[in-house]
Amino acid sequence: MKIILLGAPGAGKGTQATRISEKYGITHISTGDIFRANIKQGTEIGKLAKSYIDAGKLVPDSVTCEIVKNRLAEDDVKDGYLLDGFPRSLYQAEELSKFADIDLCLNFEVDTDLLMDRICGRRVCSCGESYHISTLNGATTCAKCGKQLYRRDDDNPETVKARLDTYNVMTAPLIAYYSAQNKLASVKCGNGTPEEVFKAVCEILDKYGK
Ligand code: AMP
């Protein structure tokens, strides 16, 4: 199944992607992760992406669409994938439709008032797990794999504000776009725990026959 995960920054897309990927065996593709790996390796793409990521803006379409197009041409995603963080604009969605036939867009609905605190208090692990400082009780390592947790460079108030603005202007219109194609399924996250949200996600995916 070819699935898009849509939602504002901090909505929990990454956390749910890890769980979906483990349960259903669908490959998780995160454009944010691809950019962060490039930054770490010091590639030209990484150097370019960093300035946009630090400013809370979208990395140019020419670079982003090319990366996704190449990734989707690889063998391991022939039977399906989870796209996390792409598309992020109507232009990207139109580009995607030229090289992929998406089955479902899962939209994570969250109360935007919660997002600033959620993201700024977020601590992540390179294994994909994500935590909030309010529930870590001072722990600094990942409960799942034991590695050191860290705060993403762009999880600071100034950048988060820009990321939320970017989402509202550029990405939110995708809700209507996929709804018009009868491909949208919304998950009301409210204040639900990741487990509760995942239960709702599974109900949708099981209904769609995986
Ligand atoms: P994420 O990990 O999904 O929160 O993405 C982190 C940052 O990477 C975003 O704030 C953007 O700067 C950049 N990025 C990720 N996906 C895209 C995309 N589809 N188009 C443009 N920029 C992106």
Kindly describe this structure.
The relative contact order is 0.20. A hairpin with a 5-residue loop joins strand 5 (122-124) and strand 6. This protein has helices spanning 13-24, 31-41, 44-54, 61-72, 90-99, 112-120, 133-136, 157-171, 173-180, 194-207, and strands spanning 2-7, 27-30, 81-84, 104-109, 122-124, 130-132, 184-188. It is of the alpha/beta class. Adenosine monophosphate is lined by residues 9, 31-32, 35, 52-53, 56-59, 64, 85-86, 88, 92, 163.
Considering the chains and any ligands shown, give keywords for the structure.
binds adenosine monophosphate, alpha/beta, two-stranded antiparallel ribbon, 5-stranded parallel β-sheet
Short account of what is shown:
This protein is an alpha/beta fold and 210 residues long. The chain has helices at residues 13-24, 31-41, 44-54, 61-72, 90-99, 112-120, 133-136, 157-171, 173-180, 194-207; strands spanning 2-7, 27-30, 81-84, 104-109, 122-124, 130-132, 184-188.
